[in-house]
Design goal:
homodimer, two-stranded antiparallel ribbon, about 35% strand, 4 helices, DNA-binding, Arc Repressor Mutant, subunit A, alpha+beta
Chain lengths: ~250, ~250
DNA sequence: GCAAAAGTGTTTTCTTTACACCCATGC
DNA sequence: GCATGGGTGTAAAGAAAACACTTTTGC
């Protein structure tokens, strides 16, 4: 083997698909609060892909790990200070970036309910939350403004820069897999939550409706009752607040 | 954002934890064939970590993806031509390699039964298969010659170079997770196999014994009968050979 | 009272677990 | 015959699904 310095080196970036649940208080007291799964995008102000959307991200520095780089960029570009990071794959097609040889370590980042994180704390003008919904062969982003088409596991979208359509698709699949197999759903919720807070995002992400009584039983081992209640003045019985069960898995 | 060329660039390597099932025909006809989960290691002939063990791997080239780099290095260093690659995380601690700033995209690679791949086809003198067994707080490699100690998800071993002890530990956990949740066990088997070929590795990897009758039922939906039988002259009823079910999941 | 969602109970179905038993083979 | 692992049957226990019903709230 030759000396490692003989080899050309790529630039290494971290790109982040940030997921959050947006809870908008219902205007009409007869309705449930509307909950949406959202991701963070950036509108690109410069070339390449000027005017298109991209994921927050940036380059790895010699003094940090790639996870630290991801969190640093997330903070710089969106104001978010803490998040659960889930590593996705590394995107390394030689032609994925027209600027040159740049590979990207992609992450999914999960933050507890969005409202507590945006506006007040955000120092980023350019990043914004958009809704994301998974269909059978497409992903609908920002209520139809951005549509990712899926064909044979490949994702296409001409409004998203680089291979970010593919990264978003892969991130969504990973999120779903983690929700089904590893209780990661709790990382999208605040410390205290109602059963509905848990059930609605769960159904959106997995794409499957659950009967209320059955869902309650299924997750009962993973949560603990508190003696608090939540009722946004809605016209129905108040919901008990739960927290994540303290026993380890 | 500045021009990307302003940033210093790391060397990027791919390191591979190659898993395979080694089936040694039993000497005594009264015994079952012994099956072991094994991984591929390399004895380092040069500094750093001269004399210690490391994973096969090498540097990413500008014309290939990191997956292609992993498969190329696997072929060059071990003679293995095809494998199922599972991406692990990227290891990027700034001080992980004493030679300089080198980050590593790690992969698990799964190959069908070892014997068909080694000796005859291998053009690598330096790589070799060693057994791997997971205990509660340690990993036993090569029948006790290499012991990885686990403490709080951190892996330590002074016989393994770089952070490769940690990579092997993470790879094992990932393999286990994939076997439990995603039927990846079939990628460790040849096209035709007996129920025992399936059950023994499954139990070794998951660390849980399954009652034979129940295991058979559990996996019955995922396999198809053939009209072939396998009996290495053993003193018991011959085993029917099965293949993976052709229906997609 | 009424609508809406929270929450409980019951029955049915399916899957998982445990265990008893028969089958085919080489010696 | 006998030991060994391959393979089947069956019953109990547990989890998932379906559905009917009660509770608490704001108007």
């Amino acid at each position: 083997m030759n000396n490692y310095k003989d080899y050309e080196r790529p630039s290494v970036a971290a790109d982040i698909v940030t997921f959050g649940i947006d809870s908008e208080r219902a205007v009409n007291k007869r309705e449930l609060d509307s909950k949406m799964l959202k991701i963070l995008l950036i509108k690109r102000g410069e070339e390449p892909f000027k005017g298109q959307y991209s994921l927050p991200g940036g380059f790895l520095r010699p003094t940090e790990t790639i996870e630290e780089a991801a969190l640093r960029e997330l903070k710089e570009e969106t104001g978010i200070k803490t998040a659960t990071l889930i590593p996705l794959k590394t995107y390394s097609a030689p032609d994925r970036d027209p600027r040159g040889w740049i590979i990207s370590c992609a992450f999914a980042a999960l933050i507890p309910t969005i409202e507590t994180y945006t506006d007040a704390e955000s120092d980023a003008e350019s990043s914004f939350w958009v809704s994301i919904e998974m269909g059978t062969d497409e992903i609908n982003i920002a209520n139809g403004e951005i549509i990712i088409t899926i064909e044979n596991e490949k994702a296409y979208c001409d409004k998203l820069a680089f291979d970010h359509a593919q990264i978003i698709y892969d991130a969504y699949l990973k999120l779903k897999d983690e929700v089904v197999n590893h209780d990661i759903i709790f990382d999208l919720l605040p410390e205290y939550f109602t059963i509905a807070d848990l059930k609605i995002p769960y159904e959106m992400i997995t794409g499957k409706k659950e009967a209320a009584a059955n869902f309650r039983r299924k997750i009962s081992k993973k949560i603990e009752e508190t003696d608090m209640f939540d009722n946004g003045g809605a016209m129905h019985r108040p919901s008990k607040l739960y927290k994540r069960s303290s026993e380890q898995e």
